[in-house]
């Protein structure tokens, strides 16, 4: 009959006892039993990093919404109800000083429509005003109403479309924020999983330490009886006491390590550090059929870092366009057509209207900039090439990393089988040598070595199982492909492009 508890069996029994519970954490003896799925669910809501990522995503989304709104017609009304001025100036033609008073009251209504495709602006403007003017020179007071209604077009030529470029940049910013948010979720899953399994590992190590203490207590009792019966030397009892004390110390240290791991885990998922928790993990080996070439292709097709590199290249191209526009040859066409009317009576303003067309073409012609534009262009082209190199390096990093993870998974599968066999052998070895110790064929120091060996093999098996789970998650994150369900885990709700 074995005198110790197998930690894997204890975990399986605990799993069976809790199968009737849902994902929601269950209270057992005042303690919250936390599954990995529930821990991830809590962390996605409570994690400070995720909260910041969501706010950044919202900020970029609203900026794009604002830009789309700015491309619609703008209606504005400017009113100046009172504008009075008095001035005294010298009239050179009549060689006399003249004092004048001027009172104005006017309002301007405008509808401005940006033209996205051409980067132009079409405006409809109506200016209605009243003017009361007095001149001392001729002792004349004039009161008139006026209205100026016209349609105006401003169109840049021989230059790039700044409106469309700005809109595209904001769309890329939003896409980049969405990618960052998705990557933050994956990073959170990785960190929470590592912290979760750290707690599980410490729980498992604590159980192993309890088993070791139980075995050392049994060994101590046997030694004490043999010494009291005069069958063993007294130093054997001293050694047994030392071994027992060491096991007690190891158990206490393991308890401290477990509590520290729990605190880190609770902070990671965003719950109170005063809440009592334990974790329930499934670390059974369930190898999945993984095709390395397919995994690499999934990564190259879906990895969000590659899209970020492409976005960086597009931004570098935008910067190159802006740099090329410095000291550029460009022009502007301004067209307007409208009618102007004025009269002392408001109702007669348009009795004899005046057409007031306007056409203007202007050019900006740079002559010499001492090589400034060329130098800036060279710098922008260099930045663009760096972005392209970064994209190529990122692809190579993805391929190499997934090859390494794949090899690691294959190695861990073999290491787990070896570790299981080692545990079985260490258990049998300890039982045989315990019997030898009971028969007086082995010292307590030798038996302690077999106990340490057994504990080490159990911990090695637990570590190998956890490392396999973590490496499987790593491959999932690297390839963005769930090999358990055979489907993509990429889920970024990109905005509809306009």
UniProtKB/TrEMBL annotation:
Main location: membrane
Keywords from the named record: Cell outer membrane, Coiled coil, Membrane, Signal, Transmembrane, Transmembrane beta strand, Transport
Leader sequence segment: 1-24
Family membership noted in the UniProt record: Belongs to the outer membrane factor (OMF) (TC 1.B.17) family.
Membrane-spanning ranges: none
Coiled-coil regions listed in the entry: 160-264, 402-429
A Pfam short name: OEP
Keyword Cell membrane recorded: no
Organism ancestry: Bacteria, Pseudomonadati, Bacteroidota, Cytophagia, Cytophagales
Record PANTHER family: OUTER MEMBRANE PROTEIN TOLC
Name recorded for this polypeptide: TolC family protein
Tree of life domain: Bacteria
Cellular compartment(s): Cell outer membrane
SUPFAM superfamilies noted in UniProt: Outer membrane efflux proteins (OEP)
């Amino acid at each position: 009959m074995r005198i110790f508890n197998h930690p894997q069996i204890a975990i399986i029994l605990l799993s069976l006892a809790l199968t009737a519970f849902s994902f929601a954490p269950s209270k057992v003896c005042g303690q919250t039993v936390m599954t990995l799925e529930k821990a991830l669910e809590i962390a996605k809501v409570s994690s400070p990093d995720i909260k910041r990522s969501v706010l950044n995503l919202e900020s970029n989304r609203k900026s794009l919404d604002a830009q789309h709104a700015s491309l619609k017609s703008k209606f504005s009304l400017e009113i100046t109800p009172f504008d009075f001025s008095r001035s005294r100036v010298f009239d050179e033609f009549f060689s006399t000083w003249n004092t004048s008073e001027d009172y104005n009251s006017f309002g301007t209504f405008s509808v401005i429509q940006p033209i996205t495709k051409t980067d132009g602006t079409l405006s409809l403007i109506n200016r209605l005003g009243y003017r009361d003017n007095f001149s001392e020179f001729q002792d004349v007071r004039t009161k008139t109403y006026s209205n100026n209604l016209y349609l105006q077009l401003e169109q840049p030529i021989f230059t790039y479309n700044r409106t469309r470029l700005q809109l595209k940049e904001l769309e890329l910013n939003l896409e980049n924020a969405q990618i960052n948010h998705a990557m933050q979720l994956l990073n959170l899953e990785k960190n929470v999983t590592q912290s979760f399994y750290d707690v599980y590992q410490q729980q498992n190590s604590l159980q192993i330490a309890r088993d070791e203490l139980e075995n050392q207590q049994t060994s101590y009792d046997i030694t004490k009886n043999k010494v009291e019966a005069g069958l063993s030397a007294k130093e054997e009892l001293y050694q047994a006491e030392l071994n027992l004390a060491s096991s007690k110390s190891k158990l206490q240290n393991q308890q401290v390590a477990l509590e520290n791991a729990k605190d880190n885990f609770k902070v990671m998922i965003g719950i109170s550090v005063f809440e009592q928790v334990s974790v329930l993990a499934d670390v059974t080996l369930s190898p999945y059929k993984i095709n390395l070439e397919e995994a690499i292709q999934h990564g190259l097709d879906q990895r969000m870092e590659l899209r970020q590199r492409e976005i960086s290249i597009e931004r570098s191209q935008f910067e190159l366009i802006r740099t090329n526009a410095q000291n550029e040859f460009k022009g502007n066409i301004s067209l307007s057509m409208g009618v102007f009317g004025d009269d002392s009576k408001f109702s007669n303003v348009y009795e004899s209207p005046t057409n007031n067309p306007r056409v203007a073409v202007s050019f900006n012609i740079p002559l010499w900039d001492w090589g400034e534009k060329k130098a800036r262009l060279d710098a922008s082209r260099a930045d663009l090439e760096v972005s392209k190199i970064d994209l190529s390096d990122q692809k190579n990093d993805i391929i190499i990393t997934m090859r390494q993870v794949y090899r690691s998974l294959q190695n861990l599968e073999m290491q787990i089988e070896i570790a299981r066999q080692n545990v079985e052998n260490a258990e049998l070895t300890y039982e045989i040598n315990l019997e030898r110790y009971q028969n007086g064929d082995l010292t307590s120091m030798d038996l302690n070595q077999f106990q340490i060996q057994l504990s080490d093999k159990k911990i090695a098996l637990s570590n190998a199982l956890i490392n396999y789970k973590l490496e499987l998650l790593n491959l999932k994150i690297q390839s963005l492909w769930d090999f358990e369900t055979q489907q993509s885990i990429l889920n970024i709700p990109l905005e509809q492009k306009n």
